[in-house]
Inverse folding.
């Protein structure tokens, strides 16, 4: 995975999945965290970003997905577990297959990230302003009309 420490930052190259169904988005929460985020993961050397999303969804939820167009490039600066991060995120519109179990029951769904448990759940996009979602720009981005390709620079304040 492309992740390394330089100066006092951890740098990550991450691919993230924007999975929508009707007016809802699929988010996950890592065991021990208070906030929710979109699924995805760090890109392996030699791996296409879209392949990362397919691999991560298979590893974490045993769900096949189709990674469609790239929506956003995000330069994200934040602290997580007392470590400063500088992350370059590639956010893709991603589709579940029509027979996905995630479309046919309300959830939540349990998954794993190594030894950590993950909880996946659907959230109404219109309600994201009231949710602790990271990066927080997603609450705005997911309610904008249409999803135009965009470059975001985001500094998390919480």
């Amino acid at each position: 995975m492309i992740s390394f420490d330089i100066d006092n930052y951890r740098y990550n190259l991450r691919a993230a999945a924007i999975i929508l169904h009707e007016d809802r988005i699929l988010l996950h929460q890592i065991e021990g965290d208070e906030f929710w985020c979109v699924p995805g993961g760090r890109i392996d050397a030699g791996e296409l970003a879209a392949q990362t999303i397919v691999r991560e969804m298979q590893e974490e939820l045993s769900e096949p997905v189709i990674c469609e167009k790239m929506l956003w490039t995000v330069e994200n600066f934040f602290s997580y577990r007392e470590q400063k991060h500088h992350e370059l995120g590639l956010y893709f519109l991603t589709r579940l297959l029509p027979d996905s179990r995630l479309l046919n029951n309300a959830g939540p769904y349990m998954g794993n990230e190594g030894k950590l448990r993950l909880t996946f759940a659907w959230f109404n996009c219109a309600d994201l302003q009231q949710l602790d979602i990271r990066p927080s720009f997603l609450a705005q981005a997911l309610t904008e009309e249409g999803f135009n390709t965009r470059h975001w620079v985001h500094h998390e304040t919480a």
About this structure: The mean pLDDT is 92. The beta strands are 3-6, 9-21, 24-30, 40-42, 65-80, 83-96, 109-113, 116-124, 150-155.
